[in-house]
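ping. complex inputs:
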Amino acid sequence: MWKYDPLKVKELIEQIDTFKTDGAGTTRLPFSEEEMRARAFVMDHMRSLGLQVTVDAIGNICGRLAGKDPQLPAVWTGSHIDTVREAGMFDGVTGVVAGLEAVRLIQENHIPHQRDICVWVYTSEESTRFGMGCVGSRAMAGHLSREELAEIKGEDGISLEQLLIDRGFDLEKFPEVKKNRGQVHAAVEVHIEQSSNLEKHKKQIGIVDAICAPSNLMLTLEGVQSHAGGTSMEDRQDAFMAAAGISLALEKWAGQGLSDYTTGTVGYLDLTPNAVNVIPGKVKMSIDVRDCDYASKKYVVDRFLKEAEVIAASRKIRLFVEEKCDDHPMACDRHIISMMEEICEDADLAWMHTFSGAYHDSLFLGEFTPVAMIFVPSRDGISHSPKEWTDWKDIHTAVFLLIESLIKLSNEI
Ligand code: GLV
Ligand code: MN
Ligand code: MN
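pong. complex structure:
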């Protein structure tokens, strides 16, 4: 039925992957030169498909395919194009490209649709640059104020506000970023699974029931910088040894979450002065706790922080805790889920229900519109790594499911 071009998805993903910093894998931090070039490429591509392109004050890009009745709330799809450091080429980009390919096929095949269909690129889904993720969709959900933009800073000390100004975004229009319930009919995001459930169960498609949410903290530990040989073991106040104890406490409490799935990670560690023969006087470390159950996440974070304070005090280390985010998990929409189940059954696809341990913009979109996510397998469950891989045929299957879902949703009156 579709004039399907399997090369299109591959070509687009590979083209977007040319915009990256030198080094292993793909690094494309939000608002970097490379990301700005990738944004320009995606917007050009959207225009070449005949989409109407707009960019909001926080940099979220929207490519709109007009439906028969532009008064009706639109149906959304899309994902992100920023990456963590040394990522693969599929995380985020797959969802953007799947959306672009879906609207191309809907147009080329003259499929009638009442509602507009929008393909979004959300700003800074990854927490690498700003210590909190889903910056663009968070603002859409009204969880980021104009004032906070000046306070959100990366390790380079440059604020999100400054970056937006430098990159030419119109902050006067910040109030328009926020969306309200009723403004959007539904949102469906395609994403790589980033776990190994689909692979283990030999399924091509995962229909996501719920998305886990993180608490992100930045801990600063201050001890006394001193000589590695001259300072006895009793006399030292070693900030790193406290960080080591605190890391193990995190692992312990994450293992005692109240739900079936809790994770705890120290992904960023910065030692000062970071020298072979110097006791670290200062350590900055990130804490990431995730759960699909908010109460369980809170339980783990509270217990962990209490123990972290005890560990720091016992080593005469000053501990400072900065909360970057404390987000709520999101349940996907039952109606879209059953619609997708039906499409999968009719097309005889190998699918299963699953959940997302990773973070996604859909989590915030879910606060103002019904959301659903389509997962495709990640080889060996690996992601946030140059080794990340997803088979093209699985992405094609997801594009099929996305198109069918968008057509149904955009014709719901
Ligand atoms: C994004 O990939 C996240 O889960 O942090
Ligand atoms: Mn990611
Ligand atoms: Mn992602």
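The chain has a mean pLDDT of 97.
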